[in-house]
């Protein structure tokens, strides 16, 4: 379905568009006012699919065909979103220190399983030990 320009759609067309959905989903970040408006109109409660929601991680696992969360390494650069998501779902976590110093990360209440100064620092490790885990996409 093509994007809808809400400024050019009359209320009857908008109503038909909104009524065509079974669920209202939101990434929970920056769209609350619009989500509230759509939820009020449709009479449906939004399902939040944002990090660090466990539901978000379970959705990603299902989409990827993963059944064992402990076999997932979730790599991210934000403690509150990425590492917390991994912890909520049962993933192993690797924090890339893009937004944090090592000292600040170590002082945080949420701790990753692993951390690295940058993604590039993982290349020698993968070249030496991880070739069987790499695949071409």
What is the compact description of this entry?
The chain has 137 residues and is of the alpha/beta class. Helix content is 40%, strand content 12%. It is elongated and about 55 Å long.
Task: Give the key terms.
137 residues, alpha/beta, Rossmann fold, 2 domains, 3-stranded parallel β-sheet, two-stranded parallel sheet, 6 helices, 5 strands, elongated
Major sheet strand order = 3-4-5
Q: How confident overall, as mean pLDDT?
A: 75
Q: Percentage of helical residues?
A: 40-55%
* Strand content bin: 5-15%
What can you tell me about this protein's structure?
This protein is of the alpha/beta class and 137 residues long. The chain has 2 domains: 11-48, no CATH class; 69-133, 3-Layer(aba) Sandwich (Rossmann fold). Helix content is 40%, strand content 12%. It is built from 6 helices and 5 strands. It has helices at 11-19, 32-42, 54-64, 79-89, 102-107, 123-129; strands at 25-26, 47-48, 73-76, 92-96, 114-116. It has a 3-stranded parallel sheet with strand order 3-4-5, covered by helices on one side. The protein has a two-stranded parallel ribbon with strand order 1-2. Strand 4, helix 5 (102-107) and strand 5 (114-116) form a beta-alpha-beta unit. Helix 3 packs across helix 4 (79-89). The radius of gyration is 20 Å and the shape is elongated. Mean pLDDT is 75; it is low at 1-10.
């Amino acid at each position: 379905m093509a994007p809808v320009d809400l400024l050019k759609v009359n209320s009857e067309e908008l109503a038909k568009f909104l009524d065509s959905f079974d669920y209202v989903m939101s990434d929970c970040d920056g769209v609350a006012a619009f989500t509230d408006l759509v939820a009020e109109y449709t009479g449906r409660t939004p399902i939040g699919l944002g990090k660090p929601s466990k539901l978000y991680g379970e959705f990603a696992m299902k989409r990827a065909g993963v059944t064992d969360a402990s076999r997932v390494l979730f790599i991210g650069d934000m403690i509150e979103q990425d590492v917390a998501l991994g912890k909520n779902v049962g993933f192993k976590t690797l924090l890339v220190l893009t937004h944090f110093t090592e000292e600040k990360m170590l002082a945080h209440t949420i701790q990753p399983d692993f951390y690295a100064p940058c993604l590039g620092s993982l290349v020698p490790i993968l070249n030496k030990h991880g070739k069987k885990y790499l695949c071409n996409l």
